[in-house]
Specification:
Elements (H helix, E strand, L loop, with lengths): L2 E3 L26 E5 L4 E5 L16 E4 L15 E4 L3 E4 L18 E3 L6 E3 L6 E4 L5 E4 L4 E3 L6 E4 L10 E2 L2 E2 L1 E5 L10 E6 L4 E6 L11 H9 L13 E4 L13
Antiparallel strand pairs: 1-2, 2-3, 3-4, 4-5, 5-6, 7-8, 9-10, 11-12, 12-15, 13-14, 15-16, 16-17, 17-18
Length: about 260
């Protein structure tokens, strides 16, 4: 039976196993989806998260599990799944292969590479750029910069000199505060609008302009490329804005 290991939200590659600053930039232990023979089910689990302190399910400490099945391909699993979120309930799960067979798997917004492993998204089609595992996210050129309603504050997509070339997480581009708000020190503070799976978060870093300095680049790069909404505690004291659940391509369509 196959198993799947969680990957970076920045570029879909394995999480780094070392950190330039382990105290402040933790090494991420990825979650895993695999088949568990003892319960005849596919499970989602993480070695650091348990439903209880008891060890009766220590072989497969599942957080999400399918119905009993002998199906080899997880995409063929039928029926509702059980999910643990403090109590055990039921939920529907949609699983899609992140590889491609033809250009249709790239939503016709890119080309399936010859190795059949990934999509090469079109960079500029009539003022639109496509990103995402299947080139499913559309970013218009006029959405590279957005503005706040109250203060006309400015937020922009910024390039980085590594990875995919643009600051992004969870298949969404990150918007960095540029100026205009009377509540933020434009010369010293840093604020980021980051998508974290199903919500946009506004993360505020007082005095955070040092993050963009050349001296701090190795640390900023490691933090960005290994960002994880749960393990980096997106709901923390630095979070000043949280959207409703959304699948919007930009914060503009999020409420």
């Amino acid at each position: 039976m196959r198993s799947s290991v969680e990957q970076k939200k920045f570029d879909g590659t394995p999480f780094d196993t070392t950190s330039p600053d382990p105290v402040n930039i933790s090494v991420k232990i990825p979650a895993r989806i695999q088949y568990c023979k003892s319960i005849r089910a596919w499970v989602f689990m993480h070695e650091f998260i348990r439903k209880s302190t008891h060890h009766e399910d220590s072989e497969c400490p599942w957080l999400l599990r399918s119905e009993e099945t002998d199906v080899y391909d997880i995409e063929e699993v039928q029926g509702p799944w059980q999910v643990w979120a403090g109590v055990i309930g039921k939920t529907d799960v949609d699983i899609t292969c992140n590889e491609c067979n033809d250009n249709a798997d790239c939503n016709l917004n890119g080309e399936c590479k010859k190795d059949g492993k990934s999509c090469e998204c079109f960079k500029d089609v009539e003022g639109v750029q496509f990103i995402g595992q299947h080139c499913e996210v559309r970013l218009k050129d006029d959405c590279h910069t957005i503005y706040g309603e109250k203060s006309n504050d400015t937020w922009s997509v910024v390039p980085v000199g590594w990875g995919k070339g643009l600051f992004q997480e969870y298949d969404r581009l990150v918007y960095v505060y540029q100026g205009g708000s009377p509540l933020i020190d434009d010369d010293n503070d840093a604020v980021f609008l980051i998508y974290s799976g199903d919500r946009w978060f506004g993360l505020y870093q007082p005095g955070g302009q040092f993050l963009f300095g050349e001296t701090f680049e190795p640390f900023f790069k490691a933090s960005v490329m290994n960002y994880h909404a749960f393990w980096d505690r997106a709901y923390n004291s630095g979070t000043v804005i949280v959207s409703d659940p959304t699948t919007g391509d930009t914060p503009v369509v999020s409420t």
